[in-house]
Amino acid sequence: MGTDVLVIGGGNAALCAALMAAEAGASVTLLEAAPREWRGGNSGHTRNLRCMHDAPQDVLVDAYPEEEFWQDLLKVTGGITNEKLARLTIRASSTCRDWMRKHGVHFQPPLSGALHVARTNAFFMGGGKALVNAYYRSAEKLGVQIRYNAPVERLEIENGRFVAAWVGNERITAKTCVLAAGGFESNREWLRQAWGQNERGEWPADNFLIRGTRFNQGVLLKHMLAQGADPIGDATQAHMVAIDARAPLYDGGICTRIDCVSLGVVVNTEARRFYDEGEDFWPKRYAIWGRLVAQQPGQTAYSIIDSKAIGRFMPPVFEGVQAQTLPELAQKIGLDVDTFMQTLNDYNAACRPGTFDHTTLDDCHTEGVSPAKTHWARTIDTAPFYAYAVRPGVTFTYLGLETDETAAVRFGGVPSDNLFVAGEMMAGNVLGKGYTAGVGMSIGTAFGRIAGTQAARAALSGGAQ
C-alpha cells in the first residue's frame, strides 16, 4: 500500500518537508534521483542561511530586521518578487535555527574573512554536506523510507490532485506529495532553448558551467508545466555567478568562485570593461556577474587585480595568471595589448583618491570613465599583476511552479489540496531575478517546512483540507 506523504527530491527543501511530515505523525517516503554518495542536490554545496533577527542571536551579530532583509531582496530582484511569500520566508528564517539544531545541524561562529556577512547569515559547521547528512540521519531515525537512484519521470494527476508517481515502470501511490526536485540547470538542451542564439551567432548556454548537481535535469518541472501547473519566473533567470573558467562542468560548488571582482577591474575578451565592479558589497552583487559575463563575447571575462588586493578576498582554488607588467599579463591571457592598456590606463587615470575600506561602501571611486567604479576604486599599478578567467556558473534556475503561503501547486489559479512544492522548484516566486547570499536556503527551509506540514495535515485528515 502507498505511503501518507511522498517527497520527491533529496536536498534541503525535500528533507525539511520529510522531517516535518514525519514529526506530524505521517508515514513518509523520500525519492532521491541521485545515488547515495551524491545525495542532497545543490544543498551539499551551500554554506549558510540568511536570517532575520532583531537583536544579536548566538552566531549572529548585531541585528538584521525584517525590513532590511526585505529591502535587500527588493533591490537584488528589482521588485520581481511576491512580497507576501518573500516576507513569509524572511519571518520563517528567524525561527528555524532551533528546529535545525534539533535535527543535528550545528552552526559555527562567523569566519573573519566573511566580512559583514556575520550579521546577516548563519554558517553551518561543515557546510551544506554536513547539514544534508544530519537531516538524512534524523529522517532515518524518524522512520522516513529513503530510496536512492529513484528519479521520478512523471506523475498521475487527476483534477489537480496527486494520485501516483512513476519511477521507471514502478507506480508509487501516496495520499499527498511534495515536489522538491530542483530546477533544470543541468539540462543543457533546455538552457540552450531558454537562452537561444545571440547577435554574434553564439549559443551562450554552451559555455555555462554548472556549480551544483548534475541530477537537476528539470524532468519533473517540465512534466508539471505540461500537465498545466501554473508557472512562475523566466527561464533565463538563475542564480548565476562568475566562476573560474577552469572549474569542472558539474559540482564545482563554492570553491570555484572568484571573489576579487570588487578589488580590481573586469574586462571581456575584447579587453574592455563592461560593468561597475564596485557597485555594492560582494554578498549582494556576486550573483549578477554570471549573467553579465553570459552577455559578453565567448561568455568569458577576466578579473584583473594587482598585488594590493592579495589577502583581501577568499583565495581561489586555482592560481591566477601572473605577470610583472600589465602588457605581459595581456599577452599571457591572449588579449589585444593596446586595447587592454588603453582600458587600464583610462581606469587608472579616472581613480580618485579616498580612504579605502573594503568593509564599507567607501569613497574610492572613478570620475570620467564609463562604466564608473563607484567604490573600492584603486589604481592597478603594483606588480605582480594577476588575471582570473571567468565563465558563467549556474547554481539553480528560477523558472518554477507558482504557489501561495500553503506551498500548494496551482492549476489554473486553483490550489491543489494534496500536491505541494518547495525549494528551487518554486524559488522563482521570491526570486524573479538576482540573488543575495544564503537566501536560497532560507526559501528551501521555509517552504520545505510548510509543504511537509501541509502534506501531513492533508494526508492525516483524509486528503481534503
UniProtKB/TrEMBL annotation:
Keywords: FAD, Flavoprotein, Oxidoreductase. One of its GO terms (molecular function) is oxidoreductase activity. It holds the Pfam family FAD_binding_2. Residues 4-430 form the FAD-dependent oxidoreductase 2 FAD-binding domain. Its cofactor is FAD. The keyword Flavoprotein applies. SUPFAM superfamilies: FAD/NAD(P)-binding domain (SSF51905), Succinate dehydrogenase/fumarate reductase flavoprotein, catalytic domain (SSF56425). Gene3D superfamilies: FAD/NAD(P)-binding domain, Succinate dehydrogenase/fumarate reductase flavoprotein, catalytic domain. This is FAD-dependent tricarballylate dehydrogenase TcuA. It comes from Limnohabitans radicicola.
